[in-house]
Amino acid sequence: MTQDNKLENLRNDKERFVAFSFAAADLLIELDNNGVVVFASGAAKGLTGVDMANLKGMPFVDVVAKQDKSVFTHILETMKVGDRITPVVARMANTKVSVTVGACKLPRNHEHIFLALTVSAMAAARPSSEHRDSETGLLDRTDFLKLADSQMATAAEAGQKTELTLLQLNGLSDLQERLGEDGVGNFLDQIGVILRRYSLGGDSAGRLDGDKYGVVHSASIDGKDFEEKISELSKEVDPKGNFSIQSSTVDLLKGTLSANNATQALMYVINRFVDSDTEEFNIKSLAEGMDNRLEKTMNRMLALKSVFQNYKFKLVYQPIVTIEDKELHHYEVLSRFKDGESPYEPVVFAEETGIIQDLDLGVAKKVKDKLLEIQKRGDILPKLAINVSGNSLDSDIFIESLVTLFRDNDEIRESIGLEITETSQIKDLERADKVIGSLRSTGMEISLDDMGSGSASFQYIRSLTVDYIKIDGSYIKEVLTSKRDAAILKALSRLCQELSIGTIAEMVETKDQLHVLNVLGVKYGQGWYFGKPQPDIETRRKPRGITQNLKRKGFATTWT
């Protein structure tokens, strides 16, 4: 082969290499031994905000957003000749665009590092803002679970096998005593870099609790590697310490885990792991029984979803009355499952696993059927309040399904109220207020449940435009003996009067409580004093003529 032919073949090979790279990437970058850009080709300006000419000569980490700099510094410093990293998601500092970055360090190229930057589904899954742990730079538990959900779904669609490793770090408090606040802070920062470096997409790692961490990663990475790397780090900073690590890894696509709602089952188990301080649910037991726990959780979720979707539950109705005259105002609709079984535990399980929407929609459907039955026999429709979890309120699909369910019958829709429970599950109050406004515009009235039970209660009153609030029963229990609780109730009642919000007191059980609530200005009451939840509702015949004529002319009935 002549020299010219060899050169031609080399040119062809180079062109093929560039073509293959561009087929999979939007921007190609070559870095020298110091991490400085020596070559770039592609959408430099669009992705990094820096044009091609100015990009050359810049350290690559300078175009990366602050929260990702440490991860890429670690990658560039630790890559060896022949290494190829799994794609890592990074946000660009100037444009805020998230891209997937692949990297390799080829032999016989002056040990330069080659990067391929791509806007992909994995990059798009990353939220525009994250809540991070200040010590490690890792995502907090909530955002880790959300991002892990998105990353796992993306990986599954691409056929990429993923695993989850949970780690428990033992001895952090002792380490802090020996290293001091600054020393342990630096140690935790380095742990965060290590876990992110090997996580799926470079950010699927989170600090779940003070000493508990989670990492979603490719199956090609051994979860035990995390133990070894962190152990090596701890020995460097504290050679004589008793710091130790335990870990548990589970295959995220194993068996039933590939079915619908598998992620919710996994997150439920993670939350139990984080919240439990008992020996029965420590990292060791988790490692030994992770698959079994997931299997049980998944099976229970599927069983409960079947109960919800096939309406295999009963409804009961508890009266809510006007305190001043003891006249019935409306009923709260409550769910009941097996005879004698408390509904609390299955409802909490449904909320924590994300299947509460199925129950909320199932209750709404049964309530509509009940009102249709009353409507057909010509009786006055009672006003019914159904519970809707904050989790459900956050779902566009749920809201659309709920509105569609009641769209075809104005009279029934105007007899429906929504009582929002688990308000702590509402992540975006501005969006929630818009949703509540759209529901109220249809004739539905909205209540907030358990007001006063959480530190953010007044924030909800400030942010959400509602018709009623339900005062947590703990205040009602103590209203006769606690001046502080009585003062809080009085202030809350006055505030709500000024905002034209009705107040409903829960757990009213005695005549004395009723008297004090009336003096304090609370308008409505609910509790055993007025009646326990009952299996049916007594209704009265609808007067002929005037009501129907008013409805035909477009007059709307209200709850007030």
UniProtKB/TrEMBL annotation:
SMART domains: EAL. InterPro entries: Cyclic-di-GMP_PDE-like (IPR050706), EAL_dom (IPR001633), EAL_sf (IPR035919), GGDEF_dom (IPR000160), Nucleotide_cyclase (IPR029787), PAS-like_dom_sf (IPR035965), Rev_trsase/Diguanyl_cyclase (IPR043128). Pfam families: EAL, GGDEF. Residues 297-547 form the EAL domain. This is GGDEF domain-containing protein.
